[in-house]
């Protein structure tokens, strides 16, 4: 159980410290109910994002993309920022087209998460895309190079959890949410 009667700290000031790519770096001056004062830091995102678990027949469609954090090509789900005026479902459809070259007849919300509640403001919506059709031409996205599509059998979901190049926490959360959804609603 959570204690919902706690008094939240008073935010005395939010100070901009600069920009870091798509984030604004901020310092928060806080005073807690017990009088303690602290300075917290956060990355304030300009936009929320979406992760798309794409199901094509008996396979998941993963992408292989270079990751600046590991300096390696990593496996993961289609994902990207939600553009101004888009819903997360519209953004999911757009990202699926741009990154994988598919459209979906159905996009279903699985869960919403934060990458890190301790220092980030952006929400990540996770959706499952089904009823996929390959597009005649992939729309241009913002990737610096073409992304490789990797098919992963639905019968091997648990093996994907331990794959050495599938290690981004957002992908892991999305896979856990999808695995539960798959066993409850899609597997019959």
Automatic annotation (TrEMBL):
Q: Respond yes or no to whether keyword Hydrolase is given for this record.
A: yes
A Gene Ontology biological process in which this protein takes part is:
nucleoside phosphate metabolic process
Q: Which GO terms describe its cellular component?
A: cytosol
**Key words of the record:** Hydrolase
Q: Name one Pfam family in it.
A: NUDIX
Q: Which domain of life does the protein's organism represent?
A: Bacteria
Q: Which GO terms describe its molecular function?
A: ADP-sugar diphosphatase activity
Q: Give residue ranges for domain Nudix hydrolase.
A: 45-174
Which PROSITE patterns does the annotation name? NUDIX
Q: Which InterPro entries match?
A: NUDIX_hydrolase-like_dom_sf, NUDIX_hydrolase_dom
SUPFAM superfamilies xrefs: Nudix
Can you say what this protein is called? Answer: ADP compounds hydrolase NudE
The organism is Psittacicella hinzii
């Amino acid at each position: 159980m959570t204690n919902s009667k706690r008094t939240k700290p008073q935010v005395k000031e939010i100070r901009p410290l600069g920009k870091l790519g798509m984030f604004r770096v901020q310092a928060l001056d806080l005073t807690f109910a017990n009088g303690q004062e602290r300075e917290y830091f956060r990355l304030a995102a300009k936009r929320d994002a979406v992760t798309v678990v794409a199901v094509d027949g008996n396979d998941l469609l993963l992408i292989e993309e270079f990751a600046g954090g590991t300096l390696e090509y990593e496996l993961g789900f289609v994902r990207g920022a939600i553009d101004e005026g888009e819903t997360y479902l519209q953004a999911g459809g757009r990202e699926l087209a741009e990154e994988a070259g598919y459209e979906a007849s159905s996009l279903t919300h699985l869960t919403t998460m934060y990458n890190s509640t301790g220092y980030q403001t952006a929400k990540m919506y996770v959706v499952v895309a089904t009823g996929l059709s390959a597009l005649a031409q992939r729309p241009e996205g913002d990737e610096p190079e073409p992304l490789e599509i990797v098919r992963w059998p639905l019968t091997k979901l648990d093996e994907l959890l331990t794959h050495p190049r599938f290690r981004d926490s957002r992908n892991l959360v999305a896979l856990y949410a999808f695995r539960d959804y798959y066993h409850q609603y899609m597997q019959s």
